[in-house]
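for the writeup, i need someone to sanity check this before i put it in the appendix. the sequnce is what the collaborator sent (i think, or maybe the updated version? ugh). structure was predicted straight from it, no edits. if anything looks off just tell me and ill rerun, i have time this weekend
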Amino acid sequence: MERMSDANNPNVKPWAQAEMRRYNQDVLNGHRAFTSQSRCWPGGVPGQMLFPAEPIFFIQTPKEVWIIWQRDQHVRRIYLNQEHTRYPKPSWNGESIGRYENGELVVDTIGFVEHPFFFVDNWRTPHTKDMHVMERFKVVDGGKAIEDTVTVEDPGTFYQPWSGTVRWQKVDRGPIIESICAENNAAFEKYFTNLKEYPMPQAKNDTPEF
């Protein structure tokens, strides 16, 4: 069963609703619904936080917090106790600046790249380069889980800011292992599937497509 976007959401502006309807129509026409992780694209912020299939590792250093996904060893860096740069270079994860307040890690992220496959969630909700994401990470359940409350503000896409919460359970699966998502994807899609799929990222002339 494929995910369908809520293209009638009253908080979403008309241009974004039109994009969501276009992707929904692709599904109705027999195309697989796009999800970044299943097609080996970066999920971005906050979408990457929704990837549940493989372990996520949190590493605290004196000046940074690293969030590492086992899939593709994707890394998000949160820089502590400093200001945003004046003109952050647009990227999938944006520029994340963090500080601790009452035991919670508060993260302010700006500087997002615009890309056709960069959505804020797994339901293909688009955004603009002016998206602003605030997060509050905290340890809950007596140290057995981490919770991230996310608030997204993007006046170009949404009439009002919106919030959501994701939680991860602490598990012990040993050290991080190599997990490559897009290895030999061209041959796999050519010979082993007849489904209509979105492309995977590929390096061309030593420069990644994304």
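Residues 4 and 28 are 9 Å apart (CA to CA). Residues 14-172 form a domain with the Lipocalin fold (CATH 2.40.128).
thx in advance!!
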